[in-house]
Amino acid sequence: MVRILLVDDEPFIVQGLKAMIELENPKYRIVGEASDGKEALEFLKREKVDLIIADVQMPVMSGLELLETIRKEKISDAYFMVLSGYSDFQYAQQALRYDCIDYVLKPVKQEDLRRVLRQVERLEQEKMEQEEQKQFLEQAMMSRSLAAVLTGEMSSEELEYVEKRLPVSGGLRYVELEMKEEAGRDGAEYRKAFRRACQKHMGEKWKECCVKDIAPDSGRHCTALLLSGEMLREKGQTEKEFLQEFLEKMRQEGFETTAYAGVRVNSLRELEESRRTAAMVKSLRVFGERHEILWYEEEQEKKHGENMILCKEILDELIRAAEENDAGEIARKTEELYRRMGSAGMNRQMVDMNLNYLLFELAHLAMQQNEMVTQEEIFAKIREGACGLQKLRDDQGYLERFVREYAEYLVKLRKKSSRGVLAEVEKEISEHYAENLTLKEMSRKFFVNSAYLGQMFKKKHGISFKEYLNNYRIEQAAELLLRTDKRIYEIAEAVGYHDLDYFINRFISAKGCTPSRFRKKAREEE
C-alpha cells in the first residue's frame, strides 16, 4: 500500500486528485489532506507517508518551503511531487535540488498522475528489495561472526560486530534447547517453526539472542539462547525464572523442550566456554535422570546438603591414575571408591553424584590432552564405554575396566597431537590431490575441529589449506608438463581441475606464464 498526503489550498483540486488516485488502484490510499505546508508539516510529524503531492503556491508555507523543511530537518523521507500552475524553470530547479521526483503542471492529467504513481511504486519496490538484501547480508555477516565467536575462533572485527548487534552486557550464559521431535512431521520445517517460536518469546529487542548453532555432539543445527544479565534485569527475573517461563511458553506452542545451560561467563570473548560446557551437560545427560533444565554448575559441583557425600579426594586420585595410565592404581582407587560409598550408606542419588563427577572430569581431562580433539569424539567414547550410570553403579569391575580403557584412550590422544594430524592431512593431499578434498572433509576424517585445523595449517605453512592444495596440484601439473606429452586439458584433469580456464589462471598465478609457455620454455633450455 502507498500512503499519500495531499497538500493544496484549493479544495476542488484535492477532490479531483482523490478521484483520479482512487481510479488507479485500491493500494493507493489517501491518508491525509492539508491546505498549506505548515498544516502538512504537523501531520508528517505524527504520521508516516510514502508520497506527498503538494502545490507550489499556498498561504502560510508553500510547497517548496515544505519540501525544503522536511528534507533539511529529516522529518520525512517520502517521495515528493510538486504541482504548479506555472512552467517556471526556477521552481522546478529548486524542487529537484531537494529530491523531488516530479514537477507536474496543472491541470493534472490522469496519465501524468499514473506515471508518478507507477514511479513511486517502482521506487518502493527497489527500496524494499535493497532493504531485504541489506538485512540478508547483515544476517549472513551476523551468522558468520557469531559462529566464529561460539567456536572461540573469531577475529577482533567479528567480535566487535557481534558486540554491536547483541545487547549482552552483564554476563552471559549459553543455553542449548532440545525439542522433542514428533513422528510424522517434517524435521527441517519443525525445527524452523521451533526457532521462530523461540524468537517470538524472546521479544523483538532480544530475538537475536536466540541463535542458530551447530550442536557439537551431533553436527546438526540447534537453537540456543544467550541469557544476558542486561536482559534479565530488564525483565526483572532470575535466570531460572526466565528459563522456566520460557519453556512453559514453548509447551503452550506445542514444543516439549529440554534446556542445557552452560557455565556463566563475563563476556562474548568467553562464550565458547559456556557453549562447550552446555554441550557437555547435554552429552552426559544419558547418565542421569532427565530434567527439564540441566545447569552445568549443578551437574558438576552438585551443591549437596548434609546427606550428600562426594568422595572427591578418592575420585581425583582415580582421575590422576587414569591420566598416568596406572592400571594398578586404577584398580586400587576403584575398589576404595566403592568401599567408601558402601560404608557411607549412600543411596542411588549419592552414588550417581559421585559417578557424574568422575565422568565430567574425565571428559575435561581428554580435552586437555589434545586441543584438536572434538567434543563429539570424547562424548561418544564416554557413552560407548560407560553404558549408563546403572551399569557403573552396580558393577565395580565394570567401572574399573571402563577407566582402564579410557586411560588407554588418553594415551592415544596425547600421541595424536596437532603435529601428527597435520602430517596426516599433508599425506592425504600428496596421495589424493586430484580428488575433491576439503578442509571440512579432513576435519571429519581425523576428528578435528575444522576451524582449528585451518588455523594450525596456516600457522605451519603460512597459507590456507585450499591454497596449499592448489599449489601442490600446480607443482604436479608442472611435472607432467615437463615429463609427458599430455595435452593441457588432460593434465588439468589429472591434477584435479575440471575447469580448463580456471586451471590456466591458477597456473599463470603460480608460475608467471601459461602451461604451454612453461613447457615450451623448459624444452628450449634443454
Counting DSSP H or I runs of 4 or more residues, the number of helices is 24
Structural class comes to: alpha/beta
Radius of gyration: 34 Å
Shape: flat
Helix content: 55-70%
Mean pLDDT reading:
83
How far do the termini sit from each other?
A: 76 Å
Strand content: 5-15%
| Low-pLDDT ranges | 303-307
Strand order of the largest sheet: 2-1-3-4-5
Describe this structure in words.
This protein is 61% helix and 11% strand. A five-stranded parallel sheet has the order 2-1-3-4-5, with helices on both faces. A five-stranded mixed sheet has the order 7-8-6-9-10, with helices on both faces. It starts with a strand and ends with a helix.
Short recap of the structure:
By secondary structure, the chain is of the alpha/beta class. It has helices at 11-24, 37-46, 63-72, 89-97, 110-151, 156-165, 187-202, 229-235, 239-252, 271-283, 296-301, 312-323, 327-343, 348-369, 375-386, 389-394, 396-415, 418-432, 439-445, 450-461, 465-483, 488-494, 500-511, 515-525, and strands at 2-7, 28-34, 51-55, 79-84, 102-105, 172-179, 210-214, 221-228, 257-261, 293-295.
